TrEMBL record:
EC number(s) from the headed UniProt entry: 2.2.1.6
SUPFAM superfamilies linked to this entry: Thiamin diphosphate-binding fold (THDP-binding)
Gene Ontology MF terms: acetolactate synthase activity; flavin adenine dinucleotide binding; magnesium ion binding; thiamine pyrophosphate binding
Domain called Thiamine pyrophosphate enzyme TPP-binding: residue spans: 380-517
CDD domains, sorted: TPP_BFDC, TPP_PYR_POX_like
InterPro entries: THDP-binding, Thiamin_PyroP_enz_TPP-bd_dom, TPP-bd_CS, TPP_enz, TPP_enzyme_TPP-bd
Protein's recorded name: Acetolactate synthase-1/2/3 large subunit
S-adenosyl-L-methionine as UniProt keyword: no
Gene Ontology biological process terms in this record: small molecule metabolic process
Pfam families named among the record's database cross-references: TPP_enzyme_C, TPP_enzyme_N
Family designation: Belongs to the TPP enzyme family.
Alphabetically ordered keywords of this record: Thiamine pyrophosphate, Transferase
Amino acid sequence: MTETKMNGAESLVHTLLANDVDVCFTNPGTSEMHFVAALDHIPGMRSVLVLQENVATGAADGYYRMAGKPASTLLHLGPGLANGLSNLHNAKKAGSGVVNIIGEHASTHIELDAPLTSDIEGIARPVSHWVRSSKSAQDVGKDAAEAIQAAMVAPGQIASLILPSDTAWNEDGEAQEAIEMPVPAPFDESQLEQAVAALGGEETLLLLGGQALTESNLEIAGKISAKTGCAILSEWANGRMERGVGRVYIDRVPYPIDLALKALAPYKRIVLIGARAPIGFFAYPGKPAILTREGAEITKLANAGADLTAALAALCSATGADDTPPAHVSEPTQAVRPTGPITLEAIADLVALSIPENGIVVDESLTSGRAFSPATKGAAPHSWINNCGGSIGYSMPTSIGAAVACPDRKVMCLTGDGSAMYTVQSLWTMARENLDITVVVFANRSYQILRGELTNVGVGNPGPRAIDMLSLDRPALDWVQMAQSMGVEAQRVADCETLDAALEDALANSGPNLIEIVL
C-alpha cells in the first residue's frame, strides 16, 4: 500500500492500473466527474466512450474473452447500470470478468431522494458475483483491489463497485499496489476413474465448454476421442472457441430443440469438462427440458471454474492417449465460391472463404447462421465467439471489446438486423476508435427466430397480427444510411458476387465497415 494521499477517484485509477486493468468503456454522468478528471490526468488508462451503457458492458465482455483480463466500465448511477444489464447478463453466462464502476450520489444526498436515486446494489446483484459500495475515500483503493480479485475468479466474474461521489472527491484516498490473483480450482479427481470408465465406443460423449475450447485443450480432446472412440461436442454457446484448418474441430449441441434431442440421443454416457449437462433453451409443450436420453449416465469431471487443462491432461493420460494423434483435425475448406442469388448456404461458404488468418468471428447470426459451423471448420485459423446468455444485442459491443483487446487481429461481426438494432450505437464507437471490424448484417426484415418459435411452442397458423409483431418492415431499416451517419463505410449487397467483393474489400482495409445482406 502506498502512503501517497490523493482523492478517492485518483486512488481508484491508480489501483486499477497497478493491477493491469487499463481499459475503461465509459458513459459517465455528473456523479462520475472526479473519476473522469482522474482518468484525464493519470496516464495509462485507455478510455473508450460509448453512447449507451449496454455497449459498454458488452464491450467489456468481449475484451475479457480475448484479453483474458478484465476491463472496467464507468456507468452513471442506477439507471445507467440498468441500461447495461442485458449484456452484463450475457457476460456472466459467458464467464467473463468485468469490473463495473458505478457512480452514486454523495452520502449526504441519498437521503434527499433526488430524481436519480435508486437501489444500485439491488439492481447490480442479479448480474454480479460481487457487489460493494465504498464507504469512504480511504476505502476506495482497497475495494477496487478486491473487485479486481473477484473479477479474476475463474472462469471470470462480474464485480460491481459503487462509488459515491463524495468518496471520489474526498482527499484521503490510498491506492493499492498489485495484488495476488486467484487461480482456477482443482478439478474433481475423485471422478477421474469414473470418467475413464465412461468413455469408450460410439455411445459415449465428451462434452466441453469454457477454457476446454482452447487450441491446445481441443488437441488433447482429439487425442482422447481417437483413443477411446468417444464423440466430442461443445455446448451450444461458448465464450470463445479456437477453430480452423489444422485444429481439432468439434460441433456444438444444436439450438433447435428437436435437433438437439436427435444429436444427443445416441449417448448413454457423457463426461462433462467445463460444460453443464444439456438442457433446453426454453420449455416447449410436450417436449423434454433435459436433452440427454433417458437414463444417460453423466459424469462431471470439472466445472467451468476448475483447471480444465489439468482435467483434460489427466483424462488423456488415464485413457492412455498421450501419444495418440488427435482425431477430427480440420482439413482446408474446399468450398467453391458461389454465384447468383444469395442463399444461407452460399453465405456460409463465402464467410468460410473470407475469414482472415487469426481472425475473430463474433456470431449473433441466429437463424441465418446455422450452417456456419460445419462450413467454416476448415477456414483459416480463427477464434469464434457466441452469445452465452441469449439476450440479443451483444455482438457489435462484444466486437468492440475484442478489437480493443486484439488490435492486430481482424474482427468479423455476424448479426441479424433485429439483434443489431438493440445496440446500433456501437457503430459510432467503432468509427471514433477506428476499430478494424467488419459488420455483416443479415437483413431479413424480421425477428425470424421468433417465427420458428411460434411453431415450437405449439402456435399453429399464426395470424397477420402475430406475424406483424415479429416483422421489421413498415418502414424497412436502412443499414447503409445508419452506418454512414455514424462514420462507418457501408454497402448493400443482394447477390453472391457483390457479397464476395464486399467482404474482400472490407477485410483488405483497416477500420470499420458494414455490409448489409438483403435476404
